[in-house]
């Protein structure tokens, strides 16, 4: 991803209802005015949707941080559709908001609308997910995780877990929504690590749309078509949690009969990890709100900001989940 974005600085820092016709579910938490009128900064934010526990926590973080920073937030929910995000961004441009931020549903197809924002002199901040457009002048910065690294961490755990064993390891993979950066990158990062040892075989890989419902449905089909599954790698907790239901319904023990690796570390995922139903979770932090608001203020003031703001995150074993759960915020 970093390569595709041609980002010069990698890892430099560790860190409503105003949009019509786009399936808005949020609210204008500010005065409702358009940007540029007075001192209060207006931020137009287009969210992917509400597909997962991660997304809910991310929306909450953004809404709460905007309110506590005195930023007028115009929040739009794209309901998982790129066309809704494009409409929302155009609407933000028409309203002359001060800054636009969005979490792209997919990686491709943003050039035209971001050029419109650039021509209108409205700075854009990519939040959580990157785009694949090589023209980095279309946005000020990208704040979020390194999804390739997350996939690698999942692969590293697996390699260690099966160290010294030679039997084939049959893996099924639940991918995130097609074309989304975390789906592409978590898949490639994981594949890069496990390809070094031919005993690891991905015997089935399909999208579960980052949702519990689809994760469960796809795992049911995997269980029917694949008699010998050793490992499930799910690109997020929600799909893993749905898959656990399918595994239990099939009379198998998640975490024991089938080892499970997921990404996110939301409370429900961490609880399943502490209970031994998931074996390993790679953290992806949704709490981007406070840092995003700082970047918004700087972008509005015309101050220089790093091209890449990398989120700090870790991994969890069952023991670590037990320790972390009591103070887990999401
Ligand atoms: O972009 C972040 C990903 O999107 C999260 O890992 C997943 O849960 C969400 O839907």
UniProtKB/TrEMBL annotation:
SUPFAM superfamilies named among the record's database cross-references: Periplasmic binding protein-like I
Looking up InterPro entries in the UniProt record yields: Peripla_BP_I (IPR028082), SBP_2_dom (IPR025997)
Q: Which residues cross the membrane?
A: none
Gene3D superfamilies, alphabetically?
3.40.50.2300
Q: Does the keyword Nucleotide-binding apply?
A: no
Q: Which residues form the signal peptide?
A: 1-20
Location(s) in or outside the cell = Cell envelope
Q: What is its main location?
A: other
Key words, A-Z: Signal
Domain Periplasmic binding protein, first and last residues per copy: 44-303
Give the PANTHER family listed for this entry.
D-ALLOSE-BINDING PERIPLASMIC PROTEIN-RELATED (PTHR46847), GALACTOFURANOSE-BINDING PROTEIN YTFQ (PTHR46847:SF3)
- Similarity field: Belongs to the bacterial solute-binding protein 2 family.
Name this polypeptide is given: ABC transporter substrate-binding protein
What organism, scientifically named, is this protein from? Paractinoplanes aksuensis
């Amino acid at each position: 991803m970093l390569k595709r974005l041609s980002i010069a600085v990698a890892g430099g820092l560790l860190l409503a209802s105003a949009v019509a016709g786009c399936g808005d579910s949020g609210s204008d938490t500010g005065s409702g005015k358009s940007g540029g009128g007075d001192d209060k900064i207006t931020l137009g934010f287009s969210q992917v949707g509400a597909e997962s526990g991660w997304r809910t926590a991310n929306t909450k973080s953004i809404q709460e941080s905007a309110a506590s920073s005195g930023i007028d937030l115009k929040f739009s929910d794209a309901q998982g559709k790129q066309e809704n995000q494009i409409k929302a961004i155009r609407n933000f441009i028409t309203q002359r908001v001060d800054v636009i931020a969005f979490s792209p549903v997919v990686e491709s197809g943003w050039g035209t609308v971001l050029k419109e924002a650039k021509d209108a002199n409205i700075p854009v901040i990519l939040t959580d997910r990157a785009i694949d457009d090589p023209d980095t002048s279309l946005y000020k910065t990208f704040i979020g995780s390194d999804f390739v690294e997350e996939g690698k961490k999942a692969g590293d755990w697996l390699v260690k877990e099966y160290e010294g064993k030679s039997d084939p390891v049959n893996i099924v993979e639940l991918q995130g929504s097609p074309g989304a950066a975390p789906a592409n990158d978590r898949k490639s990062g994981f594949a890069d690590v496990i390809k070094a040892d031919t005993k690891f075989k991905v015997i089935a890989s399909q999208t579960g749309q980052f949702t519990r419902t689809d994760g469960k449905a796809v795992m049911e089909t995997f269980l029917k078509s694949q008699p010998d599954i050793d490992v499930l790698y799910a690109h997020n907790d929600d799909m893993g949690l749905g898959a656990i239901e399918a595994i239990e319904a099939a009379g198998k023990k998640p975490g024991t009969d089938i080892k499970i690796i997921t990404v996110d570390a939301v409370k429900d995922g961490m609880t399943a990890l502490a209970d031994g139903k998931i074996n390993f979770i790679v953290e992806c932090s949704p709490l981007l709100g406070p840092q995003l608001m700082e970047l918004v203020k700087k972008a509005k003031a015309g101050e220089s900001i790093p091209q890449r703001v990398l989120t700090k995150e870790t991994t969890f074993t069952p023991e670590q989940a037990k320790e972390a759960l009591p103070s887990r915020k999401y």
